[in-house]
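[agent] plan:
  1. take the single chain provided in the ticket
  2. run structure prediction with default settings
  3. attach structure tokens to the ticket
  4. add a short note for the reviewer (M.T.)
[agent] executing step 1
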Amino acid sequence: MKTRLICIMAMLLFASLLFAETDPFTIKTDSAKHEIVDSLWAVDRLSGSIYYQKDYITVDANWQEGETYIGDYYDWGWMVRFASIGYLSFELPSIPEGYKIKSANLMMCIGATAGNSTAGIYPIFNYGDAVVYPEGILEHIDYGSVFNSNDVIPNSVYASFTLFTHETLVVPSWVTYDVTECLLMDYAANRSLTQYRIYLEGFSDWDNREDFIVYPSYSNPQLPRSPKIVYTLSDGVSNSDHSIPQAQFSVSSHPNPFSDKSTITSKIPEPGQCKLSIYNIKGQRIRTHNISAKTAGDHAFQWDAKVDKGNQLSGGIFFVVLEKGNYKASSKILYLR
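[agent] step 2 finished; step 3 output follows
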């Protein structure tokens, strides 16, 4: 009898440990500390990956049931090389009266990797004789309520972070990043969603070998290993919280397209040094402009489609990137000539 009781207790202990391993998060309210800890679950219809062919020639939006691959991928059947980007979308909660956001952390379970098609090895990109371990990049973006192929190059990137490196990622494991400022910005902009994209820096090395990471993605977003944001609310009046940025960090151009000159407007929420860069479709920086913002608000720069050395460019698509510390915003601009 005693032996049987010990066996039952051992089984219960094993089951509890298994459940804890499956989902390490709990939803709880601690009124004594005046804090609420809860989880946001990814919106399944907007989560997934986008595959795009080299030089953005062909784009195909795709949802994969079970898991999403991020990295480069070679389809032998179609003899086409793709790179894969992960996209995440979370519904923002209604903040209860008398509370404000204290912290928010994006949590993803990275379940597998393949470096040069070898399972369990961090992705490796080969550039000639150089071997590069690409960083996992997280970008805070806004692609709205429809997930489609146009989002392969977001019109605006509000912030860009390093989510993991080959030195910090051990699979399988949960990866965590503080996205508090991202949620505050989304609330300030009256958005209903907070959205992100994840990719490997460089996207692909085009060596016809697969190098990727994998994270779970299910039609039911509340399955244990689905991506989530764990947030904490604390005492405070959410409607008048002065810590929420009132100005959005962004960059835009008008007219766009343009054939002569275009005014690039940088919206900066606070004074400080910013850098404005313009890149061509190959990712080469062709023009830079430093902004010494003495006040918050809009700062204009007129671009005449010339590079730093003064040479006139041919027509095409260009990318405008605004940077200030850890914040980054970007937009596309089309020059017609």
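[agent] step 4 note for reviewer: Residues 25-240 form one domain.
[agent] ticket updated
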